Amino acid sequence: MNRLYNALQLKRLYQLKQLGYRYVPIIEKRSGSSADLPDDLEMLKRIVSECRLCALSKTRTKTVFGEGDPNAALMFVGEGPGAQEDTTGRPFVGRAGELLTKMIENAIEIPRSSTYIANIVKCRPPNNRVPTPEEAYTCLPFLMKQIEIVAPRVVVALGATAYHYLTGDKSGITKVRGEVIDTGNYLLIPTYHPSYLLRNPSAKKEVYQDLLKIKRILCENC
Ligand code: URA
Predict the structure, then answer these.
(1) Average pLDDT for 172-184
(2) pLDDT at 31 over 50
(3) Ligand 1 centre from 96 Cα, in Å?
(4) Rama region for 144: left / alpha / beta (φ>0; ψ in -120 to 50; rest)
(5) pLDDT at position 178
(6) For all residues of the chain together, what is the average pLDDT?
(7) Strand positions, DSSP E, the chain
(8) Which tens digit of pLDDT belongs to each residue from 79-137?
(9) Is 157 helix (H, G, I), strand (E, B) or coil?
(10) Could you tell me the distance, in angstroms and rounded to a whole number, from the CA of residue 37 to the centre of ligand 1?
(11) Does residue 171 surpass a pLDDT of 90?
(12) Residue 163 CB less than 6 A away from ligand 1
């Protein structure tokens, strides 16, 4: 997977930068799947739990790997753990998580446990700030590998941060929400983050439309 390869290269470059490197010779492209991460969610989870590759590891309580059906057709990607996620080690368990669960169960009409939920970064950014590019790119290979293993049909990017790091596109979420982007491996659908909906309940109408679209796509062959 090209994006996984690129994410791993970026991670390596950020590590070298942290070590003081200002220049590195061209990195040779390897062929085929470049993943130097395991193709097994439990093994990947163990690696994440021991990760010390960025400064977020110093302030976290628990890593938040992600959870759900390892064969899910639908995957949600958020930004990063908040306070309750940091304490419990589970994604989307706070107020935003309660709303996400309602969105899945009431609009798409499937149990939350039949989906897979993960984040761009696996450790809580202090004060819930947006992860820095360095933190996001360092962590991204883990998410790319999760997507590769779960192999969902649809990935929903919750909010601008998830959309940006999943696509490389810096367009605002308002502009792209509801679009269906065929990545070749899965369909990516950006929508508003549940935290945004808690602050702007009037935007729930639009997200509801996005969720119905997701439901239709998932039911295409059922
Ligand atoms: N917000 C996120 O983006 N992810 C979580 O896991 C919780 C809140």
Answers:
(1) 98
(2) no
(3) 7
(4) alpha
(5) 98
(6) 92
(7) 67-68, 74-78, 116-119, 154-158, 181-182, 187-191
(8) 999 999 999 999 999 999 999 999 999 999 999 999 999 999 999 999 999 999 999 99
(9) strand
(10) 24
(11) yes
(12) no
Tell the residue number behind the tokens 């908040």, with chain if given: 82
If phi > 0 it is left, if psi is from -120 to 50 it is alpha, else beta; for residue 116 that is beta
Q: Model pTM?
A: 0.88
Closest CA to 119 of 155, 173, 65, 197: 65
Q: Which two tokens stand for residue 195?
A: 């935290």
Rg (CA), the chain: 17
Q: Which of 60, 65, 79 to mutate to test the pocket of ligand 1 (most atoms within 8 A of CB)?
A: 79
CA distance 112 to 165: 24
Phi, psi of 196 (to 5 degrees): -65, -40
- How many Å lie between the centroid of ligand 1 and the Cα of residue 27? 34
Please name the residue that has the structure tokens 């929508």.
191
Spatial distance between the Cα atoms of 25 and 27, rounded to a whole number of angstroms: 6
- The string of pLDDT tens digits covering residues 4-22 is 677 777 877 887 787 777 7
**Does residue 78's CB lie within 6 angstroms of at least one atom of ligand 1?**
yes
Instruction: Report which residue type is found at 205.
Output: K
Q: How far apart are the first and last CA of the chain?
A: 29
**Structural domains present in the chain:** 38-219 (3.40.470.10)
